[in-house]
Amino acid sequence: MEKIIAFLKLMRPANIVTSIADVLAGVAISGYFLNREFITGQTWPVVLLCISTFGLYGGGVVFNDVFDAELDKIERPERPIPMGTIRVKEAAFLGICLLLVGIIAAFLVNPICGALSIVIAVAAVVYDKWGKHHSFLGPLNMGLCRGLNLLLGVSILVSQLNVYWYLAIVPVIYIASITMVSRGEVHGGKSQPLFFAGFLYMIVAMSILYLAFMHNRVILTLVFLLPFAGMIFIPLLKAIQLPAGKNIGKAVKAGVMALIFLDASWSAAFGSPGFAVLITLLMPVSLYLAKKFSVT
Q1: Phi and psi dihedrals of 243, rounded to 5?
Q2: What is the mean pLDDT of the chain?
Q3: Does 1.10.357.140 match the CATH number of domain 2-292?
Q4: What phi-psi label fits residue 190: left (phi over 0), alpha (psi between -120 and 50 degrees) or beta?
Q5: Which is nearest to 280 in space by CA: 259, 250, 256?
Q6: In this structure, is the dihedral angle defined by the CA atoms of residues 260, 42, 155 and 54, taken in order, positive or negative?
Q7: Mind listing the pLDDT tens digit for each residue in 223-235?
Q8: Which of 19, 154, 198, 248 could form an SS bridge with 53, CB 3.0 to 4.6 Å?
């Protein structure tokens, strides 16, 4: 049991729930269910994409700890690998298996989903090994993983990928801003990058609001967008006032968890309130897992 719990810690299950929310938002953007009934044959591709993002995200964060094994002995000795609960080779094997599951599940939906899953897997490993060590390219690299994850959901209808590919820019901006904030999580940081992150958060919120306005769904979208804004800005403001590691860590955690409200906002803006509610119901699941397992 101790080994199983340690493997779960490596996978960051609370974060995986947010990646599933990304895919569901992408499916909602594609309009997949707007003219379809919820029957097994039509929901199965959605299930496969959720399995795919489970494997891709889980494998990506496992490899994060694999590549950081030596550094974590100093900075995060409570993690499973530096504690000696799991060996590096065991973690690497788990990461490979998860990534393969993610890729295979995506190919079972359609070839475009499969191709996207490969790009996501490569981008995740590149970030884990090299990207995160670059102050500018690192945040963009991590943001790209989330942006492609949204498109993974959109690509359930390949034709819609040609229409909405540019929407990936929004999660790229959002995750890049969280990644910038997280750089001060261990030793504390400065207020300046936090102010910039707040500016990027505003761009993200206004982008969703603009899309809602274009689709005449502002009020419905605000039901989900306002909780999103409150969840990210309150801890960020506290971190700006006192940029200690603890406050920055809370801001990062809130930013990751708030992805669920962001994804619900996507769904509402594109005319799928049912999907928005479904995605929102993932929030208590993610929060519960966040109490049991580390988010960052």
Answers
A1: -80, 50
A2: 90
A3: yes
A4: beta
A5: 259
A6: positive
A7: 999 999 999 999 9
A8: 19
